[in-house]
Input
Amino acid sequence: MVKIRLKRLGYKKNPTYRIVVIDSRSKREGAPIEELGYYNPKTKEMKLNKESAESWVKKGAQATETVAYLIKNCDENGNLVYNKKQTQKLSKKAQAKLEAQKQEEAAAAQKASEAGESAEAAAE
Output
């Protein structure tokens, strides 16, 4: 079976990867059928021949989970479109405080709408 997977390069604790098409039975650093690009996870830098990768997938090559993500999230030039997560992790106290504020705002809005309705009813 032919796979599209990452080939590890770089020195200790500083990995860089090449995106390669390779037989699934060969070793991680074995000779590839074709090199499609490279990926540096520390700097989020990537260059990928997307057309070639998609043609290999159409031919029946299986992309690993990581490579499938990289192919899906690259633009037409083969560069990674990395969207940083916007959510912040909050402590339990901060989450409780935020929830209490939301409930207070909802209660205030409900009182304001009820007061507006009663004023309209009194005017009629």
